[in-house]
């Protein structure tokens, strides 16, 4: 029998939440989030869809961190019908991905070496925003690393395992795919590309169901099979579906019979369907690799429940 066991929040001492490396990481998350939002609204600024995305990501993560910190400090999470440990590590993993994306997009579109027309102060503020955003990545990543399950140690839930964290990444990559599909990808031209969209939506829904079941502590709702086996079956199905989509999408988008293997010279930057098709193809392969890795870890994962459910 595996030496791994599951523990619940009741097994953790009340003072552990604040006066620990985990509490310090959450304080850093709040500090970096507050600093980024203050500097962007004060002088750094943002504009366009890229700036709106970055600002929305920072505000969403900051609000989420405030709620988590407040509930953890007051112990009010015990009143919620959720698995708190699974919920917090899921939020931290999602926030890490959001901060990583914003930390790349913001300097790429807003930071320049030369001073803009508004003066060097604006440039300096934007550089400071980028630095604080990167520090935010480290803070959220530290929480994920601190809560991550390790062989032979007691862990707090499925979402703290490699398989659980991969579920969060898969959902995030699927959101990128949906964004590329909505950006003039012309997926409705062929039945085969519509099939790929259905595959992306179905796999995203299935992944979201597994995450929600875990976070809500409803893993016993799977009556026909143990939850770990249910996860393996779902992941295997997703691997097969993504394999088919990863083959079908490039064929019907870049083969000379259906599309163009080269980017049209007249295609405008930022609004080119060919670029969106490339993005969908690339991230389809990325998610396929993530699902394969998830399948490998899911098969190795064995649950030994302690107390309640996950």
From TrEMBL:
Pfam families in the cross-refs: MARVEL (PF01284)
Subcellular location: Membrane
CC annotations in GO: membrane
Residues covered by the MARVEL domain: 17-152, 158-303
TM region positions: 21-44, 50-71, 92-113, 125-146, 158-180, 192-217, 229-252, 278-297
Annotated membrane topology: Multi-pass membrane protein
Keyword NAD: no
Keywords from the named record: Membrane, Repeat, Transmembrane, Transmembrane helix
Coiled-coil region list: none
Chief place of localization: membrane
Homology family: Belongs to the MAL family.
PANTHER family in UniProt: MYELOID-ASSOCIATED DIFFERENTIATION MARKER MYADM FAMILY MEMBER, MYELOID-ASSOCIATED DIFFERENTIATION MARKER-LIKE PROTEIN 2
Name of protein: Myeloid-associated differentiation marker-like protein 2
Source organism of this protein record: Seriola dumerili (Greater amberjack)
Source species taxonomy: Eukaryota, Metazoa, Chordata, Craniata, Vertebrata
GN (gene name): MYADML2
């Amino acid at each position: 029998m595996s030496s791994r066991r599951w523990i619940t929040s009741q097994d953790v001492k009340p003072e552990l939440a604040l006066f620990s490396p985990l509490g310090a990481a959450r304080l850093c998350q709040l500090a970096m989030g507050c600093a980024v939002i203050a500097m962007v609204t004060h002088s750094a600024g943002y504009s366009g869809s890229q700036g709106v995305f970055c600002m929305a990501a920072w505000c969403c993560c900051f609000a989420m961190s405030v709620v988590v910190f407040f509930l953890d400090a007051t112990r009010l999470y015990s009143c919620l019908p959720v698995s708190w440990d699974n919920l917090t590590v899921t939020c931290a993993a999602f926030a890490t991905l959001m901060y990583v994306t914003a930390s790349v997009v913001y300097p790429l579109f807003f930071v320049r070496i030369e001073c803009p027309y508004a003066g060097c102060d604006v440039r300096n503020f934007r550089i400071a925003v980028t630095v604080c955003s990167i520090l935010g990545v480290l803070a959220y990543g530290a929480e994920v690393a601190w809560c991550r399950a390790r062989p032979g140690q007691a862990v707090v839930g499925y979402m703290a395992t490699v398989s659980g964290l991969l579920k969060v990444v898969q959902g995030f990559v699927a959101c990128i795919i949906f964004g590329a599909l909505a950006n003039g990808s012309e997926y409705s031209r062929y039945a085969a590309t519509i099939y790929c969209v259905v595959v992306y939506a179905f796999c995203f829904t299935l992944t979201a169901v597994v995450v929600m079941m875990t976070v809500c502590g409803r893993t016993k709702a799977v009556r026909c099979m143990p939850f770990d086996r249910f996860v393996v079956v779902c992941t295997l199905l997703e691997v097969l579906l993504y394999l088919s989509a990863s083959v079908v999408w490039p064929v019907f988008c870049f083969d000379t019979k259906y599309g163009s293997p080269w980017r049209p010279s007249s295609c405008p930057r930022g609004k080119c369907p060919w670029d969106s098709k490339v993005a969908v193809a690339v991230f389809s392969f990325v998610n396929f690799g993530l699902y394969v890795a998830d399948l490998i870890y899911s098969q190795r994962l064995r649950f030994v429940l302690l107390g309640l459910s996950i």
